[in-house]
Amino acid sequence: MSFDFALIATSLPKILQGLGLTLNLLVVSTLLGLLLAVGILLMRLSQHAWLVWPAKAYIYFFRGTPLLVQLFIIYYGLPQFGLLRHSFLWPLLREPYWCSVIALALNTAAYVSEILRGGVLGVDKGLIEAGKALGLTKFQRASRITTPLAVRLALPAYSNEIVSMLKSTALASTVTLMEMTGVARTIVADTFAPYEIFIAATIIYLVLVWFIQTAFTLIEGYANRHVRKG
Amino acid sequence: MTGIVDLEQVNKFYGDYHALRNVDLSVAKGEKVVVCGPSGSGKSTMIRCINRLEEHDSGRIVVDGKELTDDESKIESVRREVGMVFQAFNLFPHMTVLQNLTLAPRLVHKKPRGEAEEAAMKYLTRVRIHDQANKYPSQLSGGQQQRVAIARALCMNPEVMLFDEPTSALDPEMISEVLDVMTDLAREGMTMICVTHEMGFARSVADRIVFMDNGEIIETSTPADFFAAPKTERARTFLGQILAH
Amino acid sequence: MSLLDGWWDDFFFGLLTVLQVFAVALAIAVALGLLGASAKLSNSRLLRALAQVYTVVFRGAPELLVLLLFYFGMALTLTWFVQLFDPSVKFIDLPPFWAGSIAIGLIVGAYMTETFRGAFLGVDRGHIEAARALSLNPYQVFWYVRVPQMWRLALPNFGNHMLSIMKDTALISIIGLEEILFVAKMANSVVHRPFLLYVTVAMIYLAMTTVITLVVGQLEVRANRHLRGTR
């Protein structure tokens, strides 16, 4: 058995052909997921049980089951219904790309809404009271005090969630998408050199993780510039 | 220099910062010494050196005939004789009051549980808190927690008690309940070294007051002299600020 | 549910497999987490660096990739090794059960490392000092003061890592382990009801993760009972 370093070098460019799709999946599903998360958060924080309970059930289901199973339900399961096959959604649900995006977005929304809720609950009650005492309206308190502070508190956990999303995009390879892990799997099938190829892919993922973490460190540093000692 | 606690020319640095400068102090058995001075003057550092929670860099520290060096067994034997009470109480949060008190006697003195608990109840009664024995620290007020901490230290039958600002973290109405316990302890003849800003306590209990500033002991006198006529300008300023309240 | 009649025993054995993988992977993850945390807290630069590489790699690489690397890599290595002694052997692989359990254990062990390290450092310094001032020796300080408090600090993350292990077991169907997702795929090729089958799988997982959440919740209540401030 030999370990072929040159093979790592030559396979890197091939695997990088899947980078575009990996990043595409990451960005599109993260943004859709964030929008959805804010909606779920507002439901979860509302005073009405009929809004709170669906939000809780949603979070419970998507955090309690494997993403791979969710993806299979959407990609293999939904076409079982003839009604869907004839609806306007079919052009989307037929495509493995959109199924992956939908599964990733639905999944991350559950986690992100809880991360944001943690941020909201972490805001010092005294500051909200100070806002009330100053005569700010409910909306002003939410937009000027709660939201900016909650976002700052949520940033570290959110950066972990983005990293976790990047890793989750690899699951799209199980529904035939040729993102980086999909490309790597095809090359391994041809060369049967699992160590070299998968290590090459891992290196690229680690570099991406590093970029995400560095970006968030900068964002956090900027967001928390008010606590830096002068 | 034949006290129960002797410090000779002790120096301590944190990096470049000179925290203790040539500190000499000898405390006789049964003596009560109050250490005061502005914050950052080295008071806490000094008493934390006495049971080697901090290591001194030069000079000698001898407790009951045992010099503190890197020798772990000697350090542990000194700690067996020296009780300490902290500003932040430092009760073990995951243990009940009684468990806090019996932990060290059982582990260190290998006392059977029944005996350790009996002794613990005796000390809890002395600090007037025996009815809280099975509560957790978080269920007690600050004053009660500090009295438990004093009882915990007493359970080891120490020769010397160190107090590191024991009332600084307390609400005003709870300070006296802790000081009362400390005063009782002083009357019973315990050797005590107390870092505190409670000047009323110092006046009524202390045999000697040690005033520190900038890592040095700059004045040592009886309470009567210290309060009536401080010898140094810095002590006068300090007293002016403390007593102005 | 009569559509699934005849498949329930397969699901049951699939679930048993899931639980076995869970147990093995958890044991590996805890062991690696303790080792990793000790290495990160040690004085040896070499150990610290090794532990750092371990956590960076296994927390950064996709779980699926680690699993595939481990399964196919081990097959290659094992075949090579066995052929040294018996050249007639064509191919040998690590059973998917072990490849999957070890891979998941390795991944979650990296997260456990950070959790245990954080819990170790999270114990209030004052409590450690108080124990030393009472002349407890370092061993006693560790077992009586540090460990009980570490447990409380580590529990919430520990619970999340258990949930990760449970959910990651679904990945092992990809390398052919006959757990519940694999059973659903097989059943689908006969009864052609993918939605029903995969939702059934989801519900079984939901039941498992619910049990874990409830158990961890109870442990947390126990671990935090001293913090209830009922003055």
TrEMBL record, chain A:
Keywords in alphabetical order: Cell inner membrane, Cell membrane, Membrane, Transmembrane, Transmembrane helix, Transport
Subcellular location: Cell inner membrane; Cell membrane
Membrane-spanning parts: 21-45, 57-76, 197-219
InterPro entries linked: AA_ABC_transptr_permease_3TM, ArtM/GltK/GlnP/TcyL/YhdX-like, MetI-like, MetI-like_sf
Membrane topology, as annotated: Multi-pass membrane protein
Predominant cellular place of this UniProt entry's protein: membrane
Gene3D superfamilies for this protein: MetI-like
ABC transmembrane type-1 domain span: 19-216
Pfam families per UniProt: BPD_transp_1
Superkingdom as given in the UniProt entry: Bacteria
UniProt similarity note: Belongs to the binding-protein-dependent transport system permease family. HisMQ subfamily.
Stored NCBIfam families: HEQRo_perm_3TM (TIGR01726)
Name of the protein this chain belongs to: ABC transporter permease
Organism name: Ollibium composti
Lineage per the UniProt record: Bacteria, Pseudomonadati, Pseudomonadota, Alphaproteobacteria, Hyphomicrobiales
TrEMBL record, chain C:
Membrane topology: Multi-pass membrane protein
Domain of life from the UniProt record: Bacteria
This protein's UniProt keywords: Cell inner membrane, Cell membrane, Membrane, Transmembrane, Transmembrane helix, Transport
TM region(s), chain numbering: 12-35, 56-82, 94-112, 195-217
Domain ABC transmembrane type-1, chain residue ranges per copy: 15-216
Keyword Transport in record: yes
Family note: Belongs to the binding-protein-dependent transport system permease family. HisMQ subfamily.
Protein name (Swiss-Prot/TrEMBL): ABC transporter permease subunit
Organism: Ollibium composti
